[in-house]
Amino acid sequence: MHQVKAVVVMAKNEPATVTTINVPDPGPGEVLVQVKSCGVCQTDHHYIEGGVGDNFPYLLGHESTAVVESVGEGVTHVEPGDLVILNWRAVCGECRACKKGQLQYCFNTHNATQKMTLEDGTELEAALGIGSFAEKTLVAGGQCTKIDADIDEKDYAAIGLLGCGITAGVGAVLNTGELKRGESVAVIGCGGVGVAAIAGAKLGGATTIIAVDVDDTKLTRAKDLGATHTINSTSTDPVEKIRELTDGYGADLVIDAVGIKETFQQAFYARDLAGRVVLVGVPSPGTSWDIPLDDVFGRGGSIKSAWYGDTLPSRDFPMFVDQYQLGRLPLDQFVTERISLEDVNDAFETMKTGKVLRSVVEL
Fold first, then answer.
1. Whole-prediction pTM value?
2. Cβ atoms of 140 and 31 closer than 8 Å
3. Is the pLDDT of residue 89 over 90?
4. 299-343: per-residue pLDDT in tens?
5. How far apart are CA 194 and CA 92, in angstroms?
6. How confident is the prediction for the chain on average, in pLDDT?
């Protein structure tokens, strides 16, 4: 058993607190890791708000690099000392998706079997099955993606962000949207996932990359990460402007990184005939959209949703790290500030302002 510092939220809408928790030694199929970095993600705040469930207390944190400390029986793909990026898609290998060779759609992903606890023995629910706002955490073996590249410690914060938001955005373009070189892409919503989609569009060889948002600061950031054109939708109709920027046709691929009725309708009508729409922004429960069915039929193409950017961590994480090292995927530009565990609550407040892409805890 290991006693470590960690960030826990005890009840709905209470501030997160730094406290001591108990982390077991790994059992069969489990891995104990020393956490090196952890990004402050909107999903963690959803846990605080009760938006993910009411299984309090929650151990927060999930976008992380870590070093393997020890492994349980049956774990052979990593060993102590390995650098890993943590993920929440530990595939089962047995469900119908896995048996079809579509592991990225696994319907039965794994987490650690044992529970981490407070000092009094109260069991903790780990955010996304990871819980890495902690000096050490316990995960399923499949949640560890080994990185063989030679990575400087100063880059741990950057590559750790592949664990969630950046992968969601880049994957929405490259995997779900199946971007082809020379195509046009429009991204509606330029928060962390949206600008990751813009970076993914540049990486994938898009020639026209259009960023849409209501905030000029976010649009400037989008341009820094690869947007060729920007649209502030408070003053310009985004559908008309996207058409204008694509010779009157609409974009080949449109990413909705917001997930509300208005932006989804904009995405639908801003695409070319036979173009693709990908929803990666997480809609609130009950959100609906109203598009005439004859418009769906008449425009052709496809409407898809991207869960984790249809990413298979074992396949995609090492490739994304390689692209970062080659200077083609600027992961370091997503790290706005580096903080300690004690600064997490302040980071949640800063996140609400939209002035940061990621605050990253370094341990």
1. 0.94
2. yes
3. no
4. 999 999 998 999 999 999 999 999 999 999 999 999 999 999 999
5. 29
6. 95
- All structural domains of the chain, each given as residue ranges with its CATH number in brackets, are 2-163+330-362 (3.90.180.10), 169-306 (3.40.50.720)
340 residue type, one letter: S
pLDDT tens-digit series, residues 156-200: 999 999 999 999 999 999 999 999 999 999 999 999 999 999 999
Instruction: Report the 3 state secondary structure along the chain.
Output: CEEEEEEEECCCCCCCEEEEEEECCCCCCEEEEEEEEEECCHHHHHHHCCCCCCCCCEECCCEEEEEEEEECCCCCCCCCCCEEEECCCCCCCCCHHHHCCCHHHCCCCCCCCCCCEECCCCECEEHHHCCCCECEEEEEHHHEEECCCCCCHHHHHHHHHHHCHHHHHHHHHHHHCCCCCCCEEEEECCCHHHHHHHHHHHHCCCCEEEEEECCHHHHHHHHHCCCCEEEECCCCCHHHHHHHHCCCCCEEEEEECCCCHHHHHHHHHCEEEEEEEEECCCCCCCCCCCCCHHHHHHHCCEEEECCHHHCCHHHHHHHHHHHHHCCCCCHHHHEEEEECHHHHHHHHHHHHCCCCCEEEEEC
CB 314 within 8 A of CB 145: yes
